[in-house]
Amino acid sequence: MSQERSGVATFKGSPLTLIGPELKVGDQAPDFTLNKDLLTEVNLSDYAGKIKLISVVPSLDTGVCDAQTRRFNEEAASLGENVVILTVSADLPFAQARWCGAAGVDKVVTLSDYKTNSFGEAYGVLIKEFQLDMRSIFVIDANDKITYVEYLAEMTEPPNYETAIQAVKELL
């Protein structure tokens, strides 16, 4: 049974239960299986040798998640070829593709945790009450060590964009 963490996150002030461990700077990044589309699965090793900024959002179809993904899409161009920005949500791959097309988002890779929630459980962001992933940011170096973590305490609040981008730039 996976570890449950209560009282560390809220949705509009109501407590949420997160499933999985609380990862810390210096931890080895856990592997995951996510869907790039309905048939294509990817793992952490598919991004080997790259600096990874993983932007986790509950659903692209909400205001804060939309803004977060657009912001990291804008930042991606200035970070270079050795950086990949992955946006993870429990949205179906169809919905992610539709949203990206409508929003003109083309520099981040959207990945879906809808099928197994393996990312949510491995990274400690699976919300028990909603079966969505809690808003969070992870920066992982080219050797798959976590160098930056931000678990948001309130689901409706945005992350600290500047600090996350600075964490990536320090690895360049």
UniProtKB/TrEMBL annotation:
User: What CDD domains does this protein map onto?
Assistant: PRX_Atyp2cys
User: Catalytic activity annotated for this protein?
Assistant: a hydroperoxide + [thioredoxin]-dithiol = an alcohol + [thioredoxin]-disulfide + H2O
* Claim: Membrane is one of the keywords in the record: no
Recite the UniProt keywords alphabetically. Antioxidant, Disulfide bond, Oxidoreductase, Peroxidase, Redox-active center
GO function terms (MF aspect): peroxidase activity
Active site at C65 (cysteine sulfenic acid (-soh) intermediate)
| Domain of life, per lineage | Bacteria
EC assignment: the record states 1.11.1.24
Q: Does the keyword Nucleotide-binding apply?
A: no
Q: Which residues form the Thioredoxin domain?
A: 23-172
Q: Which InterPro entries match?
A: Redoxin (IPR013740), Thioredoxin-like_sf (IPR036249), Thioredoxin_domain (IPR013766), TPX (IPR002065), Tpx_CS (IPR018219), Tpx_Peroxidase_subfamily (IPR050455)
Q: Which SUPFAM superfamilies match?
A: Thioredoxin-like
* Binding partners and assembly: Homodimer.
**Family assignment?**
Belongs to the peroxiredoxin family. Tpx subfamily.
Question: Function, please?
Answer: Thiol-specific peroxidase that catalyzes the reduction of hydrogen peroxide and organic hydroperoxides to water and alcohols, respectively. Plays a role in cell protection against oxidative stress by detoxifying peroxides.
The record ties this protein, via PANTHER family, to: THIOL PEROXIDASE
Q: What is this protein called?
A: Thiol peroxidase
